[in-house]
Amino acid sequence: MGQLIAVEGLDGAGKNTLVTGLVERWTNAGMRVATFTFPRYGRSTTADIASEALHGSHGDLRDSVYAMALLFALDRADAAAEILAARGDNDIVILDRYVASNAAYNAARLEQDVDGEVVRWVHDLEYGRFGLPVPDRHVLLGVRPEVAMERARSRAAGDASRARDAYERDSDLQLRVDAVYRRLAEIGWTSPWHLYDGEDIDALADRLTR
């Protein structure tokens, strides 16, 4: 069964760039690699509703921390069978955002730490009730939040289809999310975490497959 690796970080941190680089290196080494990106906008009704809420639709839906968390969790739950099948057919499955993103963003929204109620709720809901597979490793992009936020702003300015949502526009929230992510990494939430701060990507690829 293939190794499951979740890549986490703020919007604008460079997750897609990192995932693309890892896939290239592992594929060139003869490994079979599959990728999933969450939320699955355009493929998942619950993910699309969450996105619409974050851009101002569906009344006060986005005001509810638990309702928004549930929408994103249902998106992943709907993909569980695909993830398990990919894990059986590949050496590595990379998840661009996964359960830890729900823990980090919603703990930050409620101004809780990693030992708060919502982190436990996310864990019990997604790994327990929905039976999502637990990653073997996590990678956290250690880009400073100010840099990530500026990248997200620039990206939105250059592409009207990538307008920032309510979470991305809230700089205080992004700072809190970054802090929760780093605490999740420190405690090794659900599996070992690797902090990627721009080191040689080949070195990271080697570390993740040891």
Automatic annotation (TrEMBL):
<protein>
    <recommendedName>
        <fullName>Thymidylate kinase</fullName>
        <ecNumber>2.7.4.9</ecNumber>
    </recommendedName>
</protein>
<keyword id="KW-0808">Transferase</keyword>
<feature type="domain" description="Thymidylate kinase-like">
    <location>
        <begin position="7"/>
        <end position="186"/>
    </location>
</feature>
<dbReference type="InterPro" id="IPR018094">
    <property type="entry name" value="Thymidylate_kinase"/>
</dbReference>
<comment type="similarity">
    <text>Belongs to the thymidylate kinase family.</text>
</comment>
<keyword id="KW-0418">Kinase</keyword>
<comment type="function">
    <text>Phosphorylation of dTMP to form dTDP in both de novo and salvage pathways of dTTP synthesis.</text>
</comment>
<dbReference type="GO" id="GO:0016301">
    <property type="term" value="F:kinase activity"/>
</dbReference>
<dbReference type="Pfam" id="PF02223">
    <property type="entry name" value="Thymidylate_kin"/>
</dbReference>
<keyword id="KW-0545">Nucleotide biosynthesis</keyword>
<dbReference type="InterPro" id="IPR018095">
    <property type="entry name" value="Thymidylate_kin_CS"/>
</dbReference>
<keyword id="KW-0067">ATP-binding</keyword>
<dbReference type="InterPro" id="IPR027417">
    <property type="entry name" value="P-loop_NTPase"/>
</dbReference>
<dbReference type="InterPro" id="IPR039430">
    <property type="entry name" value="Thymidylate_kin-like_dom"/>
</dbReference>
<keyword id="KW-0547">Nucleotide-binding</keyword>
